[in-house]
Amino acid sequence: MKPLLIQGGRIVDPGQSIDEVGNVLIVDGKIAGLGNIPAKPDFEVLPAAGMIVCPGFVDLHCHLREPGYENKETIETGTRAAARGGFTTLCCMPNTNPPLDSAEALNYIKSKGFVRVLPIACVTLGRKGEELVFMAHLAQRGVIGFSDDGSPVKTAKLMKEALEYSRSLNLPIIDHCEDVTLTRDAQINEGMVSSELKLKGWPALAEEKIVARDLNLAAQTGGWVHIAHVSTAGSVDLILEAKKQGIRVTAEVTPHHLTLTEVEAIGYNTNAKVNPPLRTPKDNEALVAGLKDGTIDVIATDHAPHAESDKNTEFARAASGISVFETALGSLMSLVQNEKLDLNTLIARMTIEPAKILHKELGTLKIGATADVTIFDPDRDWLVDTSKFVSKGKNTPLAGRTLKGRVMATIYGGKVIYRVTVKSTAQNSSPSMGEARACPERREG
Ligand SMILES: [Zn+2]
Ligand SMILES: [Zn+2]
């Protein structure tokens, strides 16, 4: 493989406090140099003037659906979609069929994919909420955490036991916080829109009750709880208070909970049905503030692809979830454009911060690190055309909208695995752009 020189981009690497225009040199799949590196005849050159060049995005929470639900997504389509969204590392949730609760199932996941896939194992066998999986055994097989996502860890007793193990294993228990006794048949956020649409509401309290339970149990046990997809202002307050008390908690928020609200469901738009539901502008604000001040550590997509038949049905029967990989950056850049969040914080929460939770040297452009790099144009407008999605999941409330900020190339382990080729370099807004996907080789073993 020729050395690759990414030329003239704005290099933003929050892990090293770098924000400067320069070149990035990649040799043998590793970052070999940053700064004023001249091109040599044997280099392949990737021009990046006007672009942001940053570490490949790391996603702590997504659903790849395989095994068991290959009609919704496969590891191949999911990881290709991730590459298109600038993600080079994914942590996949275990609510597959069979659920990821054994070493065999985990090996299957790790042997596939066009980007790095790190599995999360179930907390309980078969996700049944009855007995814990063999946590120590699965930890040895390289899982990065445990979660019964889709459901909360059913009882305080199980959560307490899991947290006790989490302390010695130094791995998080990732909880989907939902008191299901308060959300039976719930469809969207409990509030004005649910009353208007006469849909059963999903109250903020149902999340906050389990967040509070988990924080109490983490305090008691010294275990590590990671709160998945925080969606309410009240949860942000609880996590902030817990962090002040030294409780071991980390937390994530999705692009949709940061940028969209319950009004997306008006017209019974099932593509806006998601668990937890889209909330209110006040919640958006609190989540952005929490992300800014570090109460919420990371942005995670909760990419949840579904087949058309899962969504093209009456609201109460429709599946919950949004296909996020391909729109994540574009929607999140609206926070930067509206000056709610600075670019460096946004990138940190998608790169170095999730890498810290994984205890892995990822999410950085440090010399010697694996060359996972995302290049994006912060000013490029593009239309969300779900027919062009690589993901099988076309389920997004953003369909038909124009987003500003587009991933132009993704480099994984030094290889360009996705690239948008621009036909005209003239400085006009003409969308004369073809999209060429580099054909990555399947990684084996
Ligand atoms: Zn969940
Ligand atoms: Zn999820």
- The oligomeric status of these chains comes to single chain
How confident overall, as mean pLDDT?
Answer: 94
What percentage of residues falls in helices of 4 or more residues? Answer: 25-40%
Outline type: globular
Count of extended strands: 18
In terms of per-residue confidence, which ranges show pLDDT below 50 for 5 or more consecutive residues? Answer: 425-434, 436-445
Short description:
This protein has 445 residues and is of the alpha/beta class. The protein has helices at 75-84, 103-110, 135-140, 156-169, 192-197, 204-221, 233-244, 255-259, 281-293, 308-311, 328-337, 343-348, 352-358; strands at residues 4-13, 18-27, 30-35, 44-47, 52-55, 57-62, 87-92, 116-119, 173-175, 188-189, 201-202, 225-227, 249-253, 298-299, 373-383, 402-412, 415-422, 433-436.
Task: Explain how this protein is built.
- The protein has 445 residues and is an alpha/beta fold.
- Helix content is 27%, strand content 23%.
- The chain has 13 helices and 18 strands.
- Strands 1, 2, 3, 4, 5, 15, 16, 17 and 18 form a nine-stranded mixed beta sheet that branches.
- β1 (4-13) and β2 (18-27) form a beta hairpin.
- α4 packs across α6 (204-221), α6 (204-221) packs parallel to α7 and α7 runs parallel beside α9.
- The chain is globular, with a radius of gyration of 21 Å.
- Residues 425-434 and 436-445 have low confidence and may be disordered.
- It binds zinc ion (2 copies).
- One zinc ion is lined by residues 149-150, 176, 228-229, 275.
